[in-house]
Amino acid sequence: MNICITGALGHIGSKLIRNLKLPPLSCVYLVDNFQAQRYVSLFDLPNKPKFIFNQLDIVSPEMEEIIKQSDLVVHLAAITDAETSFYKEELVEEVNKRGFECVANMCVKYQKPIIFPSSTSVYGSQENLVDENCNELLPQSPYAESKLYGEKLLATLGKEKDLRYIILRFGTIFGYSIGMRFHTAVNKFIFQAVNNKQVTVWKTAYDQKRPYCDLDDAISAINHVIKKNLFDNEIYNIVTINLTVKDVLTVIKKFIPEIKIKFVDSPIMNQLSYEVSNKKSRDKGFVYKGNIEKSIRETITKFQNVNYSVKKTL
Questions:
Q1: Distance, CA of 65 to chain centre
Q2: Stretch 13-35: mean pLDDT, rounded?
Q3: Are 104 and 114 in contact (CB under 8 A)?
Q4: pLDDT in tens, 209-240
């Protein structure tokens, strides 16, 4: 089996390529344009399977041959920062929409199944627990809107072109990887706390719930899809736990007791509150083992020599 992973050096990709729990793989094509300059994600890869790195934009003509030679595509390439997507709408349009169109159409041409990671942010603010049957989707950022666009594109290509796909709506990812970034809530709070900075929280968000996904659960979900050949043209929420910001900060305080909180106004729509069900994915055999306390501790441990007051609590 050969697989193609776009955005292979990012937060999810850099851990996935080190944890491919699959039948024998001949080759893994890694595609990344180095926009985020995460060169370190290529360090110390396993000696099996064979990795071939391609520094490419996903709209590059060379993508066609890579997809042609692959048995499936894991499409992780995207502009993912919801907050800054308000200021990068053209780039979001180019990468998350036009770029994805190119990849999806190549998958159609060569009949290659595709895994598309969407986001629970497509739900927007919801009063009740929501699942995949929710019909009133309310994306609140260009990033979230682009993910919903991708979902609709796949639905059309599935019906009209017989494309096989699966959509995984990930909760906000938390957990360590060598290629991680710190713009999402849990990771951002950790980075601020270990550097003795005030943890910035939207003033109305403290007691509101959001869906989160342990990175280990995200990787497990992708492996599960490939192992089970679960390209059923369905959508699955991949959510470890629903938590309030207060819950997250309480866990961080176990390791950094002197954490300081600053309530702020921000253009990010993090004042939204919603809870997401993972029942459909569990019924399909997805297993959740993620642990917010374990993941936060692991990430903080990576910073233990940055600040003595952090080190002594670990």
A1: 26
A2: 92
A3: yes
A4: 899 999 999 999 999 999 999 999 999 999 99
Check if the beta carbon of residue 299 is closer than 8 Å to that of residue 175.
yes
Q: If DSSP states are collapsed to H, E and C, what string results for 258-281?
A: CCCEEEECCCCCCCCCCCECCHHH
Q: What is the DSSP-derived secondary structure letter of residue 130?
A: B
Note the pLDDT tens digit of each residue in 74-127: 999 987 776 666 767 787 788 889 999 999 999 999 999 999 999 999 998 888
**Sheet order of strands, 209-214 included:** 172-174, 209-214, 241-244
Beta strands 165-170 and 235-238: pairing type? parallel
Please say whether the beta carbons of 52 and 28 come within 8 A. Answer: yes
Q: Who contacts 16 (Cβ-Cβ below 8 Å, separation ≥6)?
A: 5, 8, 74, 76, 219, 222
Residues found in the chain: 314
Does 264 or 279 have the greater pLDDT score?
279
| Angle in degrees, 0-180, between the axes of helices 185-194 and 292-302, rounded to the nearest 10 | 40
Q: For residue 21, with 0-12 CB atoms within 10 Å meaning exposed, 13-18 middle and 19 or more buried, which class applies?
A: exposed
| Interatomic CA distance for residues 235 and 258, integer angstroms | 41
pLDDT in tens, 243-278: 999 999 999 999 999 888 988 875 444 456 899 999
Q: Which CATH architecture does the domain made up of 176-210+241-275+290-311 adopt? A: Alpha-Beta Complex (3.90)
CATH class given for the domain over 2-173+213-238 = alpha beta
For the chain, strand residue ranges (E) read: 2-6, 27-32, 50-55, 72-75, 114-119, 165-170, 172-174, 199-202, 209-214, 235-238, 241-244, 261-264
The Cα angle at residue 125 between residues 173 and 156, in degrees rounded to 5: 75
- Domains of the chain by residue range: 2-173+213-238, 176-210+241-275+290-311
